[in-house]
Design a protein that fits this description.
two-stranded antiparallel ribbon, about 15% strand, 4-stranded antiparallel beta sheet, about 400 residues
Length: about 400
């Protein structure tokens, strides 16, 4: 209220006082800040007026005193708020949490396959790159295979993936879908046995060649050893010679050997100590070089022997598997009776004693055409308490 009795709102009064010559807009009386005071009566009357919510047009039905309006606006469910996720949408306060959790395109969602947090709008794009997302194999049409497991599925599991015969390294040229592998193995068992026998023969020839090399190296080593021994004995004889050894002669030479030895060489500060020592050093150098060459050859042979040993173990397993396949084809009992003929028993017993093949499996047999499937397992050197004392036989339910 002004000093002249007029009433002004705070905004208008502040505007007037900011002018060079403030005057009352009603009576034009001069004004200053000391002449304007707060009108408590007018304020109380104003705050008691009934007003509507400013969100009435969008559905809010609240109506109350002006003094309660500000509190209502803080609680009004129709108050408009901008999404805090940055999607740019303005939603009502009542729907803000639902929008942020369920509708916002920028809300963070967890991928159900890899558990990575991804914006909802980018989830489909993420599925196109997610390594755990299930995809379909283009060969066998199997679904629900994780993207990062597809290569393993094709290489190790897929029945339509083209694979080579496991005897390809021995010469079998078969290539077929994995589902045909068993049929191929059954159909070409004899062919595989023939290829494996050829590989074994080549291995045996290689072993014979290596044995010859080892014998030659042993001979060379013996010769080198004798040479070193002879050279060492010669040096020792020169050192142990009579008193004339190393004694200067009248002509400026000294003896290299014993008294009256024919070897002599000039003496002096720039002269090497004797031809005999020089020859010994040359012989030692040549001998050391040959020993080094022999050691390299021995190391090479040892590596080849290790390689052959590994190859032999693999071939033994393959041969045993092929033998079992032949047994299965030739013998199929469906009456509960097994007749098991074990060939080459001496060799098999030696392999059992050495630990290379401790046990053998028989071909499967059945208690009846639709009965239980079993096989026998035999330890030619015994097993458990009977190891080394007797033969152990077990029945295996399959």
């Amino acid at each position: 209220q002004t000093g002249c009795g007029e009433r002004l709102c705070r905004a208008c009064s502040e505007t007037l006082l900011a002018q060079p010559d403030p005057r009352c807009p009603i009576c034009s009386e001069s004004l200053n800040r000391k002449m304007i005071f707060r009108d408590m009566f007018a304020e109380r009357e104003t705050l008691s007026l009934d007003v509507n919510c400013e969100n009435r047009e969008i559905g809010c039905t609240w109506r109350g005193c002006l003094k309660d309006w500000e509190d209502h606006m803080h609680r009004c469910g129709f108050q408009q708020m901008k999404c805090s996720n940055g999607c740019g949408k303005v939603v009502s306060k009542a729907n803000f949490e639902r929008h942020a959790a369920e509708e916002c395109a920028n809300r963070r969602q967890m991928c159900q396959y890899c558990s990575t947090l991804v914006p909802a709008a980018a989830m489909e794009t993420h599925y196109g790159q997610c390594q755990k997302y299930p995809v379909q194999c283009t060969l066998c049409n199997s679904a629900s295979i994780a993207r990062d497991q597809m290569e393993y599925h094709r290489r190790e599991v897929c029945p339509e993936y083209v694979v080579k015969c496991q005897f390809s390294e021995h010469g079998c040229s078969g290539e077929f879908a994995r589902r045909e592998q068993q049929r191929h193995m059954d159909q070409y068992t004899q062919h595989h046995i023939s290829l494996l026998e050829q590989a074994v023969n080549k291995r045996d020839k290689r072993v014979q060649n290596l044995e010859k090399i080892v014998d030659d190296l042993a001979t060379q080593f013996t010769q080198l050893k004798n040479t070193v021994t002879t050279a060492t004995a010669g040096v020792a004889a020169g050192v142990a010679a009579g008193p004339a050894a190393g004694k200067p002669r009248d002509d400026g030479y000294q003896y290299a050997g014993g008294a009256g030895a024919p070897h002599s060489f000039p003496t002096g500060p720039n002269t090497r100590q004797g031809g005999g020592d020089s020859e010994t050093r040359d012989l030692a150098t040549r001998t050391a070089s040959k020993v080094h060459d022999v050691n390299l050859a021995v190391d090479k042979v040892a590596m080849e022997v290790k390689t052959i040993s590994r190859t032999q173990a693999v071939q033994d397993v393959q041969m045993a598997d092929l033998s079992l396949r032949v047994d299965i084809v030739d013998v199929k009992s469906t009456n509960g009776v097994l007749v098991w003929k074990i060939g080459d028993i001496s060799r098999r017993r030696r392999e059992a004693l050495s630990g290379r093949t401790p046990s053998l499996y028989s071909a499967p047999f059945y208690t009846s055409p639709a009965g239980y499937k079993m096989c026998a397992r035999i330890y030619l050197d015994g097993d458990g308490m009977g190891k080394g004392a007797c033969v152990s036989v077990f029945f295996v339910m399959m």
